[in-house]
Amino acid sequence: MPHSNADERRLTVQWDDPMIGARAAQTLSGLEYLREMADGRIPPPPVMKLLGFEFVRASEGEVEFAFLPHESHFNPIGSVHGGVISTLLDSAMGCSIHSRLPRGKGYTTLELKVNFVRAVLPRHGKLLCRGQVIHAGGRMATAEARLQDESGKLYAHATTTCMIFDAASDPLAKKEKP
Fold this sequence. Notes:
Its EC number is 3.1.2.-. 22% of the residues lie in helices and 33% in strands. The chain is α+β, with helices and mostly antiparallel strands.
C-alpha cells in the first residue's frame, strides 16, 4: 500500500570527512584523541552522526555515550533494532580500550557478546552507555558496557575482546603510491 506524503518521514545526516579523525588518531594517544573529539576539535565518526550517539565523556579506561532512541532506529516490530544497540555498546567498549592506548597503537574488535535485557523504545528517553576496560594487555584487551536509562534501569549489557596492534600496520596509516 503506497504511503501518502502526510506519512512520509525523513532523516538527513551530515558528517565531516572521516579521514580527519583517522589521521588525528595516528598522532595522539587514545585518551587525547577521545578528549579532542569530545571537545569538538576532531569530528566524530560518521556512524555516531548516523545513529545519533552523543559523546558524553572519556577518562582513562572509561567512556560514556548518550543515545536518544528514535523511530528511525526501529526494527520491523517497532522497537530499537538490536544492531543499533550492539553498535552503541561496541563503540563504548572499543573507545574505553582506545582510552588506554598510547600514541601509535590501534585496536579492532575480535568478538562481541551482547545481552538484551528489555526492549528500547523512544518513550524511555535518553539512555547512557558506559564502556569500561576490564583488562588491557600488550596484544589483547577486554571491556564491558552497560546501556541504562537515567534512573539506572538496565536495557542491555555486553563484553568484548579486542586486538591491539601497531598503528603503522593499519592500512589507514599506509600512504597511497603516486
